[in-house]
Amino acid sequence: MNSSVEKCHMFHESAVDLLTSIDFCESTLKTSIFFVAFNPIFWNIISRLEYYTHFLTKLTRNPRTGCYVLAVTIFSLGLVRNYFFEQALYKQGVTGVLQNEVAKVLGVALIIIGQVLVLTSMYQLGIIGTYCGDYFGILMKERVSAFPFNICENPMYRGSTLSFLGISLLQGKSAGLLITFFVHMVYEIALKFEEPFTMKIYRNPKKD
C-alpha cells in the first residue's frame, strides 16, 4: 500500500516538474510552435495552388524549376523553424526529472534514428519526390518500397518528430517535449489532407 502511494506521489512530482519548468510566456517558445504549425500549412496550400493553377510552373516556365523553387522555400522555412526551436530550448529551464543518463542516452539514440529516417527518405525520393513534385505533375513511376519505407509509413515525418524528441531529452527540457507534441499533432493532421490528395493525383494524373 505504501509503495503504491509512494509511486503515485513520485508520478505527481514528476508531472509537476515537467510543467513548472516550462515558461509558457517566453516569446521564442510561442514562435517555435507557430512555425511548427505554419510550415506544413504553407506547403500544403502552395502545393495545391500549384496543382490547380500551375502558378509556379508559369512563373518559372518549367515544372521542375518550380518544384526546386518550392523545395528551397520549404527547406528555408525548416531552418527557421529549427532555429526558433533551438532558441526556445536555450531560453527554457532544465527539467529535474529529465536530468539523468537514461534520458541523455535515449535522446542521442532517437536523434540518430530520426536523422537516418529523414536522410534515407530524401535519398529514396530525391528532391522532386520529397518536395511535392507530384503536385507539379512529376509523378514517380512506382511506389517507393525500399528502406525506410519498408519499415514505417511516412518515415520523413516520423524521423523529424523523433529528432525533436531526442534533442529535447538530450537537453533535458520539457519545453522541447511540448514542442515535439505539437510537431507530432501537426504532422498527423497534415497527413489526413496530404495522403488522400496524393492518392487522387496518382489515380487521375491530369488536372480535374
UniProtKB/TrEMBL annotation:
The chain crosses the membrane at residues 67-85, 105-133. The keyword Signal does not apply. Pathway: Phospholipid metabolism; phosphatidylcholine biosynthesis; Lipid metabolism. Residues 1-26, 48-59, 129-171 are lumenal. Keywords: Endoplasmic reticulum, Lipid biosynthesis, Lipid metabolism, Membrane, Methyltransferase, Mitochondrion, Phospholipid biosynthesis, Phospholipid metabolism, S-adenosyl-L-methionine, Transferase, Transmembrane, Transmembrane helix. The keyword Phosphoprotein does not apply. It holds the Pfam family PEMT. Residues 81-107, 193-208 are cytoplasmic. S-adenosyl-L-methionine binds at residues 112-114, 194-195. Its EC number is 2.1.1.17, 2.1.1.71. It is a multi-pass membrane protein. Belongs to the class VI-like SAM-binding methyltransferase superfamily. PEMT/PEM2 methyltransferase family. Catalyzes the three sequential steps of the methylation pathway for the biosynthesis of phosphatidylcholine, a critical and essential component for membrane structure. This is Phosphatidylethanolamine N-methyltransferase. It comes from Chilo suppressalis. The lineage of its organism: Eukaryota, Metazoa, Ecdysozoa, Arthropoda, Hexapoda.
